[in-house]
Amino acid sequence: FASILRIRNTAAATFASQNMLHDLSTFDVIDIEKPWYFKEQIDLYSYHDQRYIVSGYMSAPLGGIVVVLYNKTIGENYDVKNLYDVVREDRWTFDYVHGLCRDLYHDLNGNGTSDEDDLYAFNYAAAASFLSLLAIHEEPFVKMNANGDPYHPVFENPERMQSLMDSMKELLLEPGSCSLSDWDIEVFQKGNALLAMQQISVVKKIADTQNSYGILPVWKFDEQQSTYNTALLPDTWSIPINSSDPEKSAILMTALAAEAYREVVPASYETYLKGQIAMDEDSVEMLDLILNNGIRGDGGLMYDESFLYLTMMYLKDS
């Protein structure tokens, strides 16, 4: 029988290392150069040209891409420059967002304490917001060396990585930054924050009808970053070693990825993202800008899920 596995990416390395999966590089039908596979991520998931798992459009709803959500009403009420224009002028950077977080905070309830009822520039979910940020800023947690071994690129350019981490920490400590949860952005959803970074599907959860909302790309870290990027952390797929017809399994998996890319993704983009998620024509322009640059990935979660929590500890403490 033909069988394929959908595996949470954080569990994939365990299955592969215990010889439970086929080496997918042996199947000619699985061509990771095709646009329905995420080659950048697959290369990070490989080992010496052996690929036990792949990622692609077979399980990658576009609702999972990372964006910045924008409360336009707050921007208008507090004389914030039109942030769509800031993106167009290529000035949407970490320094710009940091300035907003430094300058925009209001103790709305007058109790002298920062709480969920105050007004903030940036509401972030401590884990969800930074899950993909290294990849978005073109400094992935894991790369492959010339021998095909995974390594931590922090040692290639430690000054830049240190700057990136310290900049994020500095931003989170500003009065205009707020986090109440590792995974949710309740303050933004209540209408009490100008910005939030989250998967785009969270738009469906915004019940606030008093404010007008839009979508922006995640900011660039600095002038070294060439494009506005997004990221997606899809589940991974493989073929179990006990499949009685692995060749048919490979064909099935390829068909799922290819047909989703040809049929589901265009429909999802036009009907779901542009038709249901985008709040205005500016947001549609921003989505085109984001997705035309492609979707970036990072192998960090596959190799070491704890890196996310180590990052959170560093950003929160010392």
How is the topology of this model organized?
Blueprint: E1 5-7, H1 9-17, H2 39-45, E2 66-71, H3 72-77, H4 83-88, H5 94-103, E3 105-106, E4 119-124, H6 133-136, E5 143-144, E6 150-151, H7 158-172, E7 177-178, H8 186-190, E8 193-199, E9 213-216, E10 230-231, E11 236-238, H9 246-277, H10 281-292, E12 295-296, H11 300-303, H12 306-316
Parallel strand pairs: 4-7, 4-8, 10-12
Antiparallel strand pairs: 1-11, 2-8, 2-9, 3-4, 5-6
Mean pLDDT: 86
Strand content: 5-15%
Order of helices and strands: EHHEHHHEEHEEHEHEEEEHHEHH
Q: Sketch the major β-sheet.
A: 6 strands, mixed
Helix content: 25-40%
Work out the helix count. Answer: 12
Global Rg? 21 Å
General form: globular
- Given helix and strand content, the structural type is alpha/beta
Q: What is the gist of this entry?
A:
The protein is an alpha/beta fold. Helix content is 38%, strand content 13%.
How would you characterize this protein structure?
The chain is α/β, with parallel strands linked by helices and 318 residues long. The chain is built from 12 helices and 12 strands. The chain has helices spanning 9-17, 39-45, 72-77, 83-88, 94-103, 133-136, 158-172, 186-190, 246-277, 281-292, 300-303, 306-316; strands spanning 5-7, 66-71, 105-106, 119-124, 143-144, 150-151, 177-178, 193-199, 213-216, 230-231, 236-238, 295-296. The strands form 4 sheets. Strands 2, 3, 4, 7, 8 and 9 form a 6-stranded mixed β-sheet that branches. Helix 7 crosses helix 12. The relative contact order is 0.23. The model has no long low-confidence stretch (mean pLDDT 86).
